[in-house]
Design brief:
Helix content: 25-40%
Order of helices and strands: HHEEEHH
Strand content: 15-25%
Protein name: Transposase IS204/IS1001/IS1096/IS1165 DDE domain-containing protein
Distance between the termini: 25 Å
Pfam families: DDE_Tnp_ISL3
InterPro entries: Transposase_DDE
Number of strands: 3
Organism: Thiocapsa imhoffii
Shape: globular
Oligomer: single chain
């Protein structure tokens, strides 16, 4: 379900999956940790960035950072601010050894 949020909204995904927006938000909160353990990751093949609206018609957005890791698309970051500074800080948190693999 997390990957369905890319290019979509919580409301859209909740309708498609027939679960409530609050339940989907709970899934997000549980599945996305505040920090990521970069140690087991050998390389980042592709990194993508997208913003999603939490609710249609509202200015309540989050930034989703995804990457192909070992051939699988995974969400590696969920940023509550969609500012240049927040995105830059996230990318700077990626170890240099992994930044070179993108």
């Amino acid at each position: 379900m997390l990957l369905e949020l890319i290019n979509s909204t919580l409301e859209d995904v909740s309708r498609k999956q027939a679960i409530g927006v609050d339940a989907l938000q709970g899934i997000l909160d549980r599945q996305i940790s505040a920090t990521i353990d970069w140690n087991p990751i050998q390389n980042l093949e592709v990194v993508g960035i997208d913003e999603i609206a939490l609710k249609k018609g509202h200015r309540d957005f989050v930034v989703v950072v995804s990457a192909y890791i070992n051939g699988m698309l995974q969400v590696i970051g969920l940023l509550s601010e969609r500012t240049k500074a927040a995105v830059k800080a996230f990318f700077n948190s990626i170890p240099k050894r992994l930044r070179r693999t993108v």
